[in-house]
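Continuing from the previous page of notes. For each protein in this section, the sequence appears first, followed by its structure tokens. Read the first protein now.
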Amino acid sequence: MNSPSEQKSSDIARRFTQNPILRPSSVPPSTPGMKIECLLNPGVFLFNGRPHLLLRVAERPVQTETSVSFPIIDEQGNLKVLEFDKKDPLLDISDPRELKYDGVMYLTTLSHLRLVVSDDGVHFHEEGLPPMMGQGELETFGIEDCRVTEIEGTYYLTYTQVSPNGVGVGMRSTRDWWNFSHHGMILPAHNKDCALFNEKIGGKYYALHRPSSPSIGGNYIWIAESEDLVHWGNHRCIAHSRSGLWDSERVGAGASPIRTSEGWLEIYHGADKNHRYCLGALLLDLYEPWKVIARSKTPIMEPTAEYEKTGFFGNVVFTNGHLVDGDKMTVYYGASDEVICGATFSIAEILETLR
């Protein structure tokens, strides 16, 4: 794979000069009459030696001046559009990501997953796999933010299932990217940001995840263990949000942790009270991964480029996918909840920031 052109930033990320590498116009809508508003937070993996991105695609009908409309999937798998008058006093559209009508919350867009492939790591295109849509009563508001982990030739997709029942972690698996097994909701609501370790530790599988609490507790990173990747237990909280710092409001895992000589390196996202999302790093013990050895005091990547500061929801850099080649880690990330970008890091340089 050819190395992408890069430019240095004020943090230790080296952004692709071609950023953004994918925009909402880069792929067609899943259904006629829909408009893609955002591309977000791809899962990343190699398949047949080529880099692939599993994009989150958020779409909705073309909007009018007087009404707001958005799609959902009914329990039979059919697309259904709901529409409300903007002047309706029961409607709250103050947040571009979600709305409330008469106290009931909906998402302003419906997300599905779309696979794109590249020969050089920069220019991506589709190769015929149909969109992966939500299925069943737990995915009627869509599926989001998929992490992809290869374990012994099988690719495991852990993603966010969204429905009126809540937000939980679903899993599908495949060996060829045409035939899929559906494993259902493996972590119940309210939970998301699930990243599997790509090998067993002490004979068990491990996963990072983020249960959330509106009152006691918060949006923290947890770890769990499993014998079969489906049934999870021995849950432990390993990283809290930190008052007064860049990750004061919420934290969540990115992609699969990277094995290094010093420990498992996990790139995670953190947000403050102003919903500004940055990236940092956790270093976990190789043999007891629930033990945190070190953690970023300051971000390793912040939203500083214009395409990261302005967009559908600005001041956001968010990743759940990377490729590792020796010391080089290529991170693909969503910027401003609208476009897909790339950056490279030196793993050694990240580890040095943790000392």
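Done with the first. The second protein uses the same format. Note its length before scrolling.
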Amino acid sequence: MSKRKTAHVADEPPAVVAEREPRPPVEAIRAAAFAQFAERGYPVVTVRDIMKACGLTQGALYNHFKSKDELLHDIIASTQGELERLCQQAVAGAGGDPRAELAAFVRVYVMRHCRLRIEALVANREIGWLDTARVADIRRSRRAIRDIVVAILRKGVERAMFDPPRIEGQHDLKAIAMALLDQCTHVSMWYGPGGDLAEEQMAKLYTDMALRVVGATPQAV
């Protein structure tokens, strides 16, 4: 009796693994610029360095930015604008209580500076290389963020919920707002993942400190 031949099934093609969609060129350029400027400083870094870091040609940069100056302005202005938007959104969703508004503001501000340390470093250290015209809109956004804090402080004082420090018997809410912002901004200079406190814990710590500075108790939020 003849042996029955075993049917051979054609090998199936290997499953195609979906690859992550590559980052758009403009985003790759921005990310490389942030990293290069943070590590080496704006004056030293060349366009060639940035494009080599992101694997693109120099011509690709000039499709999106006219110069290295324009690129620096773009990355600082974009991260600053997003910070302003997040702060506005956090305060708007806090329900109108100045204690909750200040807590929401500080939380989102500190969380962003913990997570985007490189962006914060570049924005605060390298802005001095931009000309006056390019700096104007960035400074406008920074003043807008300061004014959000001033408005929260004023509301808290008017409602007798805050009793911040006084100078010769008077509140200087703008100075207090700037002190709070400086404190929160500089977390980006030293904080790193893997330390004793996670981002959420760091944000809670800074929130409690801010509320104590203005004479409100953290437990009230």
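What the second structure shows: Residues 1-21 have pLDDT under 50 and may be disordered. The chain has two domains: 21-65, 69-220. We return to this in next week's lecture.
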